[in-house]
Amino acid sequence: MAKALAILFSPKVEAIVDGYLDLASRLSSKQWMVVLPWASREDERRIETKLLEPNWYGWKHNPFRLIKMMWFLFRLRYFTWKGGVDRVFLYGAPTPWHWVLRCMFPKCYFFTYVHDPSPHSGESLKHRLFSLMDVSINLKKSRALITSYEKAIPILKNRIGSHCPELHIAKLPILSGFLSDHDDIENDAIFFGRLEAYKGLDFLEEVLVKFETKKKHFRLDIVGRGPMEKKVRRLTKNHDNVKFETAFLSKSELANRISQSRLVVLPYSDATGTQLIQISNSLGRPVVCTDVGCFPEYVVNGLNGFICPVGDVDDFLLAIEKILDGTVEEWEDRCIKCARDNASINSFANRLNSIIHGINR
Fold it and tell me: pTM, whole model, 2 decimals?
């Protein structure tokens, strides 16, 4: 039986690495050969593999690291030949190493998981140019592209043009390890994740101001790091009811912080795929989000949260009030059931298996 190679390059533990390791732990060794990223050395899961990405990061200061990477690629070529690999699954952000793999395996089918079908607002020119190059070198030449939501399909078709490969949907699952042992409510809402320009922090401040004009005390917890930290610090100075945490939190610590809030806010100006909704719902917390990216496909109004038009402060505020007017228990039960029924890692792995191994050569 022919095998597929699953590979992700990454130096640090982040959500996309966590999701990949969850997936890798569910892939059958009879059908898959798994390459673990350098970041996995910090992970507690024990996933069987002969191949671990070397630490080639920082090669400009230590060129010897590139030699280690060349040796790794040589070993990768040997093991894949010996194991009968005839298809390659690329996960994670685009990287030049994906292009190198295409040169190494010219006869293999390539399947690419596209997390971001288009660059986010606020992305650098360098990132946008790199993304454009990846379309020509990688995406157009893939046997199939896999993404996490329906609305990404027309975006990809428009970006790639007439040579667009097959397109498939595999909805992102819950990330494992988010278990809370603390559910005393301390905040009305929490905003968590990397602090980027497209995350809608200016809009969130408008919502806070609206609450203040209505003489309502709205307690907000913000947990994250990133280029918008200065903006958040100014926000905490202007609003006494906002807490801000920049320290790195373990999954259990973040789970506790989420459980200490009544709801999660995602006021993004644009979005692609996400696992924040699944994490929040698995902990029994509803989400108030904007109608961008995958959000409308992952949230059902009144069931596991509310979807609001981008920029509509009144609608966003009303959605928050609807949740706060209800009880924790009624939302908790619905959200947990929604996550359990719709965001299983096993379902995600089975879906990828059916796409990648279902295409005959």
Answer: 0.91
